[in-house]
Amino acid sequence: MKSTIGNKCLIRLVLVTIVGAVMVGLACSPPSPVPGQTTPVTKAPGSNPDPGDTTLSKVETLSPDQAAWQKTLDTARKEPKLVMYSYYMPADIGLAMKRGFKQSTGLDIEFIIGGSPAAFVERVKVERRMGSPVASIVDGSAVDLGQAKDEGLTQPLIPLPELKNPQIWRFDPTMDKEGHILVSNFAFYTSWVNTKLVKPEDEPKSYKDFLKPKWKGQVSVAAPLATAATVRAYYQLVKKNGILDDDYFRQLGKVALLAANLRMDAEKVARGEASVAFTSGVSPMGPFLQAGAPVKPVDMQEGVIGFRTGAVMLVQGAPSPNAGRAFVNWWFSKEGQATFHKAAGTESLRTDVPSFVPVAAQLTPKKVLMATSEDDRETTKFQRDRVVDKLLESK
User: What is the CATH number of the domain that holds 116?
Assistant: First the structure.
């Protein structure tokens, strides 16, 4: 009797054990797939992903270009704080750019302001000789930075994600084919009139108009030795395009008023001491426009002189090269361009960024004589050799 009871208890114990094992197995096994749903597969580290595998991390799903740029950003965060020698980022402009860059990338930048672009380039040379570079990027004129490239002080900035689409740029922001020098904005040099002294119907239509008797003593020309504006006009109108000739500038010198520099030239027209500026731009006229001066640009039959400015370079041996590229890429983004040009009151090369030039100074020219980096270098040579000075001073 006891044996029968013991056997029954043993059978029950075995059954409970079997049922428990089955339940534990069911609990530990993966759930049955829902119809139409793929069961995730765990990959061994370093194995090739299956096409369409949705369990991959964000970085693993980036394109090669995106992954390379992500690596640039990741490396930038490990570099020393980014330092930039800057001519174009003073005061409020620099503060706006610093905040925008930080918010967009999490990276910091320090602007060292003051001095000329040429002085910054000399500073880079000294630091290189001492083996202790400070700045990773430098901005300034395309001419000065082009000379820095010739002396081996730069390295390529490209490729940058924001330069991938050429259709969003009015003009190519890459000044040299190797991508060492980039420019973010452009400007026009053209004639400006004092609207209280010159009626709309009397505005000059051609540079040749200035040789007419009625303009004698009314046209201000900025001294070529003090500013590249007059020399740039000479190079584009005479040497490159053959629209005018040397004799034109000899005759202009006999009827024009010579201003000490571009600012004095703008002031003469703004104050009514001259009716017309032979060639000027938004930067020199800007302060007078803001003060309500009655001045405006006029479109010239031969074309206005277009040039790219706001150039930037990456220093060879920079302490923070990846952070430098990150800043330049952000500067050239839609957000960066809008931030910069709104603060500076200037115009972007990007077509999707509005003009922040004062309305009174905006101009849509029919023809643009656009200067290249080679043109800028030739202009510098003409200015140094006083070619235009001699023409204007000839009697």
Answer: 3.40.190.10
